Amino acid sequence: MSAHTDRIARRSRGGGLGRRVAAGFLYSLGLPFLLLVIWGLASSSSTNRFFPGPLTILEAFRETWIGPAFVDDVLPSLYRLALGIAASIVIGIAAGTLIGLFRPLRELLEPLLEFFRAIPPPVLIPVVMLLLGITDTMKVVVIVSGAVWPILLNTIDGVRATDSVMSETADSFQITWWERLRFLVLPAASPRIMTGVRQGLSVALILMVISEMFASSAGLGYRIAYFQRNYLIAEMWSGILLLGLVGVLLAATFGVVERRVLRWYHGIREVNRA
Amino acid sequence: MPDRSTLLRVEHLRKVYESANGDVEAIGDISFTMRSGELVCIVGPSGCGKTTLLKCLAGLLRPTSGLVEMDGQPVTGPSPAMAVVFQEYGRSLYPWLTVRGNVELPLRHKRLSRQERDKLVTDAIEAVGLAHAARSHPWQLSGGMQQRVAIARAIAYQPEVLIMDEPFAAVDAQTRADLEDLVRELHRTRKISVLFVTHDIDESVYLGERVLVLSASPTWVQEDLAVDLPPERDQITTRALPRFTELRTHVYDQIQRAKRGQAVAP
């Protein structure tokens, strides 16, 4: 049999990996650093008190956030954010799979979903506040009310688009319903689901901040609004800096998870490009 | 000749696709039987409803009328007695599973112990010559190797009949010859019954013990031809036999008649 001489394509690995990582690191940090320098130079020659220099902001960052404020404001915010994201993912994928698989359900719900999706989630805050009070639950509900849509809708589309030959293969081998879900439907939809999750993450971060600005006595959003109202400008900027860092951290975590979950998907694209 | 009981019986199979622009009769009236352990090739002009026929046999499509019987039992849906190898290997294998995972998947719901399942999987992967690639993903393999994975998945399922739908239409000629020999070898060493659908006349004569020539759509069986070539076949000597040339010329003529619509329905 000649199969033993056939080659198996492998992904390129090693060979100056360390150097490439270092170069990537330099590239990604180079521009932010340059901008900081320009900002520093500009602010040192400016008298506008709303734009303090980066060093002042860094100083404020250290004083404001490293210490009890981290426990009182940052951790609760992150906790609600994590809870909101987790709930959005679970609800979005579970409901999306059901709706995507059952055609009558889809036809019944689609107009309704379009309507709810079109409502900007911040306007729900007063309603949710009336129903649930000013609680953690209310903030998590607000986060979910916005972040769940991209995940839900992408999951519906992904589940619907299961390849016909793959389905027929499952049929012909009499794969059980559960195995079909686990080994065919969900993996096939996973690229779409991950796209939805990526969009959901940024919505969740925005809603975390907004839900705290409305009615709250703690949290990142509350702090930033508080600093702004009290003309603590450097502190306000440091809060924005912290939010940006949370966003970057979120994106990086997502990137790691995505590369793991969609290893096959990126592998196929790499092979097709080669 | 060993005793070969009837495995698959098809009687007056008819399939009409209903559409808004009127009904399309894909299959007119097909009847044939296949004995256990046979390798039967089905060949016909393009567009004659080969794939439709195959899906009806595999229980993936409901025939409009007629009967498909497997071991005396009517086929109403997919059955564990059949395994299908599709033409589009790229869309039939699951890219998120490894070669091993793909071969193992259909066995998960069979009541087998861990060891039995592992043994079946390993054995099937070795039988198609892919032991070295078991942990790779399908997309890392060439087209021919991917189709070997699909064949391994089918034989690990231990069906009574292997149904192959133009399985080698999308691979290059050299790989195709290797895969044809693989099918012959699996059929001979494992006594697997094979129903092989193809549009390639040479392939049907080289592989088959019998060749069913289909007419143009609406389809019936235009000829049921026994291939009296020696059971030991290889690409060079068998294809050089005068009898091989006679048979392929005969099938070719039949297909040409089918295309021109000159053959008369029985």
TrEMBL record, chain A:
<feature type="transmembrane region" description="Helical">
    <location>
        <begin position="201"/>
        <end position="224"/>
    </location>
</feature>
<keyword id="KW-0813">Transport</keyword>
<keyword id="KW-1133">Transmembrane helix</keyword>
<keyword id="KW-1003">Cell membrane</keyword>
<dbReference type="InterPro" id="IPR000515">
    <property type="entry name" value="MetI-like"/>
</dbReference>
<keyword id="KW-0472">Membrane</keyword>
<dbReference type="InterPro" id="IPR035906">
    <property type="entry name" value="MetI-like_sf"/>
</dbReference>
<feature type="transmembrane region" description="Helical">
    <location>
        <begin position="140"/>
        <end position="156"/>
    </location>
</feature>
<comment type="similarity">
    <text>Belongs to the binding-protein-dependent transport system permease family.</text>
</comment>
<protein>
    <submittedName>
        <fullName>Nitrate ABC transporter permease</fullName>
    </submittedName>
</protein>
<feature type="transmembrane region" description="Helical">
    <location>
        <begin position="236"/>
        <end position="257"/>
    </location>
</feature>
<feature type="transmembrane region" description="Helical">
    <location>
        <begin position="78"/>
        <end position="102"/>
    </location>
</feature>
<keyword id="KW-0812">Transmembrane</keyword>
<feature type="domain" description="ABC transmembrane type-1">
    <location>
        <begin position="74"/>
        <end position="258"/>
    </location>
</feature>
<feature type="transmembrane region" description="Helical">
    <location>
        <begin position="114"/>
        <end position="134"/>
    </location>
</feature>
<dbReference type="Pfam" id="PF00528">
    <property type="entry name" value="BPD_transp_1"/>
</dbReference>
<feature type="transmembrane region" description="Helical">
    <location>
        <begin position="21"/>
        <end position="42"/>
    </location>
</feature>
From TrEMBL, chain B:
<dbReference type="InterPro" id="IPR050166">
    <property type="entry name" value="ABC_transporter_ATP-bind"/>
</dbReference>
<protein>
    <submittedName>
        <fullName>ABC transporter</fullName>
    </submittedName>
</protein>
<dbReference type="InterPro" id="IPR017871">
    <property type="entry name" value="ABC_transporter-like_CS"/>
</dbReference>
<feature type="domain" description="ABC transporter">
    <location>
        <begin position="8"/>
        <end position="241"/>
    </location>
</feature>
<keyword id="KW-0547">Nucleotide-binding</keyword>
<dbReference type="InterPro" id="IPR003439">
    <property type="entry name" value="ABC_transporter-like_ATP-bd"/>
</dbReference>
<keyword id="KW-0813">Transport</keyword>
<dbReference type="InterPro" id="IPR027417">
    <property type="entry name" value="P-loop_NTPase"/>
</dbReference>
<keyword id="KW-0067">ATP-binding</keyword>
<dbReference type="Pfam" id="PF00005">
    <property type="entry name" value="ABC_tran"/>
</dbReference>
<dbReference type="InterPro" id="IPR003593">
    <property type="entry name" value="AAA+_ATPase"/>
</dbReference>
